[in-house]
Amino acid sequence: MKSTKTLGVILASAMMLFTAACASGGQGGTNAGNKAAAPQTNAGTSTAPAAAPANKKITLGFAQVGAESGWRTANTKSIQDSAKAAGFELKFSDAQQKQENQIKAIRTYIQQKVDVIAFSPVVESGWDTVLKEAKDANIPVILTDRAVDSKDTSLYRTFIGSDFVEEGRKAGKWLVDKYKDSKDTVNIVELQGTTGSAPANDRKAGFEEVIKSSPNLKVIASQTGDFTRAKGKEVMQAFLKAHKNINVLYAHNDDMALGAIQAIEEAGLKPGKDITIISVDGVKDGFVAASEGKINFIVECNPLLGEQLMQAVNDVLAGKEIPKRIVTKEGVFTSEDAKRELPNRQY
Ligand code: AHR
């Protein structure tokens, strides 16, 4: 019986590999290489969970953050499409950016005895109890997109997603270079992502780490815009009221930058000219704004994590060792790059 189960998982893994190989030509589209993962460190755990019987579909419970941005929409689609292509049963929930909703969804997946739970944690802290419950139920957990700050890394099998600190560094490096010959003070306002989330914490930290070596670059205001367009616009309006001399906007995602662009235009200023704009993500709407010169620099964050997640699910259920951290490869785009790449952009 056990060998029949194992054979089923091996066959499913082989099919996944085949599917991933066939699909891999279709997701590139940009000079950044939209996909691909670089294994970093070793998983360090080989405890095999109960494999799904050969005749039973693998069930994956996925607790999504919400639908706050274009990035998230693309991420959700990637997960749903890839689960379908892999032949998994996907149980999907939208937490509307609330941690308590994600915890509830994870507990439901535990009760339903899904084979694997995956989620993108809305904030970094406060996961240990529910992750321990999943571990006690022998259900492996995979983190995608965002990290948790749990000390006990045995609570999850792997974390697949971007290096957000590096994204912040890339934004900072471009700015340092742009103003390297300027003696004048450059006033920066920052629109942070959701408070307490990994991308907000890390993009801020990486940016600060790089710009601190340039004393003329000054962050004069920094506030959360919760990764949404509406909040990005609202906070930018407040920034413009409070500060007459804003030179640069650093937005932690495209949606907030797009909301801020509306506020800047309504204030009679030219985005990308009167105020230099840097954002993160690289969704289609961000690319359109960049190709029009309204966003000057985009740091890419890849939402197409579905294939890698399904592969990891198969590997975990097959009892394979998988890397504890899988980092997605990403690029950067100036307005000129965005103009060139816009027709290829898939999301
Ligand atoms: O966690 C990834 C971030 O979440 C994206 O940069 C942002 O757009 C999204 O809401």
UniProtKB/TrEMBL annotation:
The keyword Signal applies. It is found in: Cell envelope. SUPFAM superfamilies: Periplasmic binding protein-like I. Keywords: Signal. The keyword Signal applies. Residues 29-50 are annotated as: Disordered. InterPro entries: Peripla_BP_I, SBP_2_dom. CDD domains: PBP1_galactofuranose_YtfQ-like. Its main location: other. Residues 1-23 form the signal peptide. Belongs to the bacterial solute-binding protein 2 family. This is ABC transporter substrate-binding protein. The lineage of its organism: Bacteria, Bacillati, Bacillota, Bacilli, Bacillales.
